[in-house]
Amino acid sequence: MSVATFRELARAAPGRLADLEPKARGLVELARWGLPVPDGLLVWPDGDVVEVARRAVDVFRSQIPAPLGTLHEGRPVAATVRFACKRHRPDLPPSFLALGATAPHDQDRDLRLARLEADLPGALKLRELPPEAGVRSAVTLALAWCRRRGEASPVVVQRMVFGRGAGSAAGMAYTRPPEVGLPAPYGRFRLDAEGWRYAESGPEDKRDLGELAEALPEAAAALLELLDALHTAAGQTRYVEFVVDRGRVFLVQNTRGRLP
User: CA-CA distances (angstroms) from residue 50 to 21, 46, 57?
Assistant: First the structure.
């Protein structure tokens, strides 16, 4: 199996998930537990990476509401492509971002691709390709990177959700503070920011999770319900990354909650 959707893996026997890397397993668990994770799939570097990438994009196409590069409900239909590894890899390139977005001068995307170029020659050319071809080429580059380094971990292809704009935000949270185990979530967020920009922001740009109720009260209430449901389903403290896309909350990462 070289390509499998989160939903397909969520229906698999629980024992099969034990072999997945924590980041990949966390996404599948969110789907299994019925929590709002953007649709996506895992792609392994098996066989001909060009053929596997083509198949992955075919599967991804069936999961999105409109063709890549078009607008759906006012947002670009785009994909993010990133790595999922069993262990910390300091040599791991940062993820691709918003591939399939058609804006000719998307500064976020162009900055991310420029930073990828050193590790993945050809990344900058992705912005010159049509949306679907760009995603297919990105998956091919990522799979080839894994193959060259003997990395058997999958590549994640996932529908992009956006933390920028009115009613939007991105951040991280623990379902319970891991150092003390208090019965309340803990986290930080930034309004009007994509997830990767939140991660690279300084402390002065991040706000305590409790303040989200002042800025986006409905989203804050929904997020707290999701964190409680996740904690109950997992039976342990979990670390999540979330995006509020125009008031709708998505969980985009889910791993075991440990102190940084």
Answer: 23, 10, 11
First-to-final CA distance of the chain: 34
Let me know the angle formed at the C-alpha of 218 by 69 and 194, rounded to the nearest 5 degrees: 35
What are the structure tokens assigned to 167, written together?
A: 């009613």
Give the integer Cα–Cα distance in Å for 123 and 168.
Answer: 28
What CA–CA distances, in Å, run from 91 to 83, 88, 126, 149, 156?
12, 9, 21, 10, 18
Give the chain's count of helices (H) and strands (E): 9, 11
Q: Tokens standing for 208?
A: 């305590």
Nearest 5°: CA angle at 76, between 157 and 162? 70
Q: Decide if 79 contacts 136 (C-beta within 8 A).
A: no
Distance CA 24, CA 239 (A): 14
Q: Which two tokens stand for residue 22?
A: 């924590």
Give CA angle at 139 (253, 171), nearest 5°.
20
The per-residue pLDDT for range 98-134, each reduced to its tens digit, is: 787 655 556 667 777 887 888 888 888 888 889 999 9
| Amino acid in the structure at residue 213 | A
Question: 238: how many CB neighbours lie within 10 A of its CB?
Answer: 25
C-alpha to C-alpha distance for 127 and 120, rounded to whole angstroms? 14
Task: Evaluate whether 92 touches 156 at the Cβ level (below 8 Å).
Answer: no
**45/148 Cα distance (integer angstroms):** 10
Q: Are 213 and 189 in contact (CB under 8 A)?
A: no
The pTM of this model reads 0.91
Residue 122 phi/psi, 5-degree rounding, is: 110, -10
